[in-house]
Amino acid sequence: MSQNIENLAVNTIRALSVDAVQKANSGHPGMPLGAAPIAYTIWSNHLNFNPNETKWMNRDRFILSAGHASALLYSLLHLHSFDVSLDDLKEFRQFGSKTPGHPEYGHTEGVEATTGPLGAGLSTAVGLAMAQEHMAAKYNKDGYPIIDNFTFVLAGDGDMMEGITSEASSLAGTLELGRLIVLYDSNSITIEGSTDIAFKENVRARYEAYGFETFLVEDGNDLEAINAAIVAAKSNLDKPSFIEVRTKIGFGTDKEGSSKAHGAPIGEEAIIEMKKNFNYPSMEPFYVDDKAKEHFSSIVAEKVEVFDEWEAMFAEYSLKYPELAKQWADDFSEITVEDILNIEGYLEFEDKPQATRNVSGIMINRIKDHYPNMIGGSADLASSNMTFMNGEESFSADNYGGRNLHFGVREHAMAAIGNGLTLYGGLKPYVATFFVFSDFLKPMLRLSALMSVPLTYVLTHDSIGVGEDGPTHEPVEQLTMLRSIPNTVTFRPADAKETAYGWALAMTSKTTPVSLILTRQNLPQLENTGIDALKGAYIVHEPKSMDLILMASGSEVSLAIESAKALEKDGIGARVVSVPSMELFKEQTSEYKESVLPIAMRKRIAIEAASSMSWGHLLGLDGDTVTLDHFGGSAPGDRLFEEFGFTVDNVVNKAKKLLK
To answer: Which of 218, 273, 221 is nearest to 41 (CA)?
Structure first.
């Protein structure tokens, strides 16, 4: 392969990227210009893929963690025959186009993860690498490396500054994820100028301390040196690899090496001068030379051959190992709620008070044997979150086949890694921590929702019921926070049966993350809870005649029922509606919603040991609340519930006042 054709290929990537930014009059040309040789080397020499089979399980994953350089990725996808046309590049950053400002999973073929929030991509890639190792341990046999793909990450200075990157990289090093290769576009420039104003550390030394093998490529235009570093990285499967490549932002333009090249078009005249500097064959925007087209087509043809060889190997494997082939098919099959509910003994519980976190632990262990692709763990809180799978081993550098994950005290990275585990395919992951620490993981939960990734979040210790740990550990506003995120389901069960239905929901979700919000304190088992919990809200106590409605979720449903019974002694009829999930209730028909919460019944009280803010649409103008709009305290949970008005007397008094 001649040096000239490679230079033309790299410069074609550069030219398309800056042309897209220029036409949109918006975007980030600097990194595509500097990092194009890195990206080209990965895609041409190392990345296995098939543009016609974009969900091929053993494809190598390429994650552009520096998502602001999306024009680079879209140019690569176009040139490598993915479903991104020149017209799509011309529509860069425009409404409804396949080429949005930052890469979006599920929106553009070939985009492996939604990136943009810096550090998120690299952290998600750690999850992809963990999934690869787990699936390889589960399925690979001698002579049949069914799963042996690599995960490549292209990251920048901003990624290296974000704390989530440190969390995830530390775990990656601990787990010795040898098929994870991070390429660091080191150009020493951020939006405000030189990185020296806020970032002087030795990043390679940091990654050595994490347990990565590290490399340095001094010249970001040296294709041979970049390739040699990647070859060396791939040869060491005992450690993840970190390759620092020193580049120049805005390479080849009059803004080279300046922050001015980062986040704004470089101008039409500057683009022409750049193309002249590169001896580019045309000054015309979006021009791709025939020689470049042929070159990229030949690259793709080689990739398709690799795919065809894998397909043939998998066919042989399926004949030789039919039980594993069946398990493989099962891992990728959809699960229905009925499938979960049909698990023997699934809805059988002792009639005694239990914390819903304990019940959740029971459900995990009832489900796990029926679904071997269930995998998950906690941010160092498994014994408190009740998320350990009994009888299963731990996932570690010595045993990638383990199903119990240990994230350490790393909630932010845990959620990103959970996204990566889910994105990889064939797995049903869950992650867990205390509910109050959902503050740490919320940005990645938001990406779960944006990507339509059905990751399960187990969030325990859900209220002032935490007790003596005090207000730092007692959630107040977190329910409102989660309920405000589009495309999520927040499910706060009232007893064992509702918890079981919550897990059935989580295991069968296809395009929505599900958060299970669970108690530390014991809750009584209620008489009328059932499958209608999956409708989000339903009647659990009905009076002979209705004067008002008490609505509650989780631990407060039993309080609502006790209060309704007390009101009945005074001749007041109170319907009790359990509301485990506002999101699910919103999805119901208007007829169903009217049957549960009649519009004419405007006397309503919301009872929840959390902020009142998310209840307005159900309360209406005439409603009242028994909620918590201040921080908690440090005392036994029972004392706090009493102190803050979560008592039958307070609910009864509020009801009588409302009726007056």
So the answer is: 221
